[in-house]
Amino acid sequence: MEPIILASGSLRRQEYFKLMGLPFSVMPAKIDETLPPLTNAEFFTKELAVKKVEKVAEDMRDRIPKWICGADTVISIEDKVFGKPKNREEASLFLRTLSGKKHNAVTSIALFKGRERKTDCRTVSCTVHFAKMADAEIEWYLDTNEWQGVAGAYRIQGLASCFITGIDGCPSTVVGLPLRDFYVMLIDNGYPYGG
Predict the structure, then answer these.
(1) Which residues contact 45 (CB under 8 A, 6 or more apart)?
(2) What is the rounded distance in angstroms from the CA atom of residue 44 to the CA atom of residue 108?
């Protein structure tokens, strides 16, 4: 299989690449990921995923690889969009907002084909149902530090699963790489993978 540059430092995405047996190297794109006010979740994730692959392609312009993959995930609830919390106080605000409600996890994946200088970008969302969290539960979860570096201040593959009552859609969307959609994307773009 052909190597893919992963334009992300996300350990979860790296774990999924390993799970799929994809040969890859990591080159996090250095771009501004600040959420502007009144952000549309789908537009924002698409824009960032594409910017990530374009930045890596630009940085490697003398030896552009055949494949670059970038992705971005945010949480959307009641016309608010949550990226990665800046600190514990913001993480607490995110969790209090999500507590007892459902919200959407939105992930966009961009796949850059170096030979054609083309980028395919696809967006997937799923709905996550959160149980009502008591103040003590929120503080306990914040003490675990799992909230650091993840959209919405929680990890479904960690202790936050104690508070998730259901997921409508693909759980790997919340983690940051919807596997079924990524698999189809690779096949559609001629990447030599699978059957």
Answers:
(1) 72, 73, 74, 106, 107, 108, 123
(2) 9
**168 phi and psi, to 5 degrees?**
-100, 105
Record the tokens describing residue 56, joined without a space. 């890596």
What are φ and ψ of residue 45, in 5° steps?
-65, -40
Q: What is the pLDDT of residues 85-114, one digit of tens each?
A: 999 999 999 999 999 999 999 999 999 999
Active site residues: 72
Q: CA-CA distances (angstroms) from residue 38 to 43, 81, 90, 143, 153?
A: 11, 8, 17, 30, 19
Tens digit of pLDDT for each residue in 57-88? 999 988 888 999 999 999 999 889 999 999 99
Distances in whole angstroms, Cα of residue 87 to Cα of each of 36, 50, 149, 156: 17, 27, 10, 19
Beta-strand pair 4-6/164-168:
unpaired
Q: How far apart are CA 113 and CA 27, in angstroms?
A: 16
Beta-ladder partners of 81: 76
pTM of the model: 0.93
- What's the count of helices (H) and strands (E) in the chain, helices before strands? 6, 7
